[in-house]
Amino acid sequence: MAPLPPYSYASVPLILVSLWHAICSSNSYGRSSTLFHARSWHPLPRLRYGELLAETLALVAAAVYHGFTVFGTQSGSETQILGLQQLVMLVFFIVVFFLILVNESTLAFSLPQDFNFLLLGFSFSVESFVAVCSATDPNLLFELESFRILAALAGFSALTCFLLAWKPVSFMVSITFSASLALQGSWLLQMGLSLYSDEFLPEGCHHLSNGHTQCDIAVADHRAVALMDLLLIIHIICILLVFVAAYGISYRKPGHTRRHSGYEFVDGNGEVDQLQMRQLPTKVVID
Question: Transmembrane region positions (predicted)?
Answer without folding.
Answer: 6-29, 49-68, 80-103, 115-135, 147-166, 173-193, 230-249
